[in-house]
Amino acid sequence: AHAVLKLNSGHTIPVVGLGVYLCEPGAQAYEAVLSALRLGYRHIDTAQVYGNESDVGRAVRDSGIPRKDIFVTSKLSIRNWGKSRAQAAIDESLKKLGLDYIDLFLLHAPGSLDTRAETWAVLESYHRQGKLRSIGVSNFGVVHLEKLAQTAQVTPAVNQIELHPFLQWPRLVQYCQSKDIIVEAYSPLAKGQKLDDPTVKQLAQKLNVTPAQLLIRWGIQKGFVSLPKSTVPARQEVNLNVFSITIPDDDMATLDGLEADFVTGWDPIRDAPV
Ligand code: A2P
């Protein structure tokens, strides 16, 4: 259950991770992470704005699993853009997580162009110090990536975006893959809003899997990292159990045909300033 991809930083990343967006800070986030780790998850995706980094850190430590075997991602809130704020906020993330290093740390969104380059440079310096093993971005469109490339010394290891058969960003995905930037899918289940889609249901039935497994597996076969969120252990288990599934090419093509530009939340890629 630990299939991995290689990042351009040289580190590996487990292809399924637990997303903890909307896991309530406190017991809910703590229990969700602990249960996922017990079920075999080795990748947890949090962020400063989720407010649950300390719960994630506590669960990671309490799990008894060696630190090196767990991949932890967090993200810099756009409230913390700019050199000194970014430095303080990264120190704060390390402290809240209670970790010596974070496996992957992302700019959470494009933020403002005024401070984006200097904020990225802060991530680069923490990366050089070994405190952020890999660094990347989230919610970036092609224009944001191209602008960043003009000043960056380190190419982002990943771009984490909302991604599922109903929202596929083909041009952006193609761009990232051509630059060796791994694409990470958040809300791979379209926040649960497409599990009843007739095509999804029918294909899942045919392949003898659940609709959630079909959507997660689609992303993995596309070469993405998939970050389904669930606080329910039984669903966490189902969502991780996707490594013995094969979606045949013609069924992949059917899923590819579901593109509908269906955004479940705010659309930072289109709405962020260049
Ligand atoms: P819950 O946390 O109660 O399990 P996404 O990852 O696309 O953002 O989707 C998350 C939503 O989908 C949450 O509401 C989550 O609810 C629900 N969910 C997660 N896994 C499953 C599953 N296997 N079956 C049904 N719903 C799920």
Automatic annotation (TrEMBL):
Q: What are the positions of the active site?
A: Y50
What InterPro entries does this protein map onto? Answer: AKR, Aldo/ket_reductase_CS, NAD(P)_OxRdtase_dom_sf, NADP_OxRdtase_dom
One family from Pfam that matches here is Aldo_ket_red
Site positions (Lowers pKa of active site Tyr) are K75
Q: Where is the signal peptide?
A: none
What are the protein's UniProt keywords?
Oxidoreductase
**Coiled-coil spans in chain:** none
| UniProt binding sites for substrate | H108
Query: Which CDD domains does the UniProt entry name for this protein?
Result: AKR_AKR1-5-like
- Domain named NADP-dependent oxidoreductase is located at 27-258
Q: Does the keyword Oxidoreductase apply?
A: yes
Any one GO molecular function term: oxidoreductase activity
PANTHER family on file: 2,5-DIKETO-D-GLUCONIC ACID REDUCTASE, ALDO_KETO REDUCTASE FAMILY PROTEIN
Q: Which family does it belong to?
A: Belongs to the aldo/keto reductase family.
State the name under which the record lists this protein.
Putative oxidoreductase C2F3.05c
What species is given as this protein's source?
Answer: Auxenochlorella protothecoides
**What does the record give as the organism's lineage?**
Eukaryota, Viridiplantae, Chlorophyta, core chlorophytes, Trebouxiophyceae
